[in-house]
Amino acid sequence: MFKLEAIKDMNEEQRLKYMLILSKGQLSSEKDDLANISNITGIINACIDNLNWTGFYLLRDGELVLGPFQGLPACNRIALGEGVCGSAVSTGEIQLIPDVHLFPGHIACDSASNSELVIPIIKKNKVLGVLDLDSPLKERFSSLHIEYFSQLVDTLNEYIDWDRI
Ligand code: SME
């Protein structure tokens, strides 16, 4: 059972490190890819404060389709190049958006979102989807989050066969 007491006194970097430890524990103890990425969204949500939406969009037949997530119901499909997620896929680059209201074409699935971090999932030079984090706070994400969430996606790539989900 997950114990929230373990993290309540941790600073942000300790929480991010703990998130990686728990994620590796999950991935090394379960073979099912869908169960794994579902619980990864739960681990992120439990470890990191001030997130209103955390989840995956996976590339299916040329568009992003909603995967496991924590938060309010969200857009089912996002076209490549559209919104923050579609831009992460078309550029292959991490999108750190301090204020989503200043991002042209931002897709507001949840009106509570004010900042966003999107990490593209790239394996063997192919973009396969994104990990999307939304916060109700402006400027919630920093280079620290890029560092640890990139490590998380690298770890996911070691374990997950995205085509099998
Ligand atoms: N804001 C995203 C859409 C997905 S939601 O945040 C869950 C975007 O602009 O691509």
UniProtKB/TrEMBL annotation:
Gene Ontology molecular-function annotations: L-methionine-(R)-S-oxide reductase activity
Domain GAF: 52-156
Source organism, top-level taxon: Bacteria
Pfam families documented for this protein: GAF_2
Gene Ontology cellular component terms for the protein in this record: cytosol
Cited InterPro entries: FRMsr_CS, GAF, GAF-like_dom_sf, Phosphatase_reg/MetRdx
Gene3D superfamilies xref list: 3.30.450.40
Family according to the record: Belongs to the free Met sulfoxide reductase family.
Protein name: GAF domain-containing protein
Species the sequence originates in: Paratissierella segnis
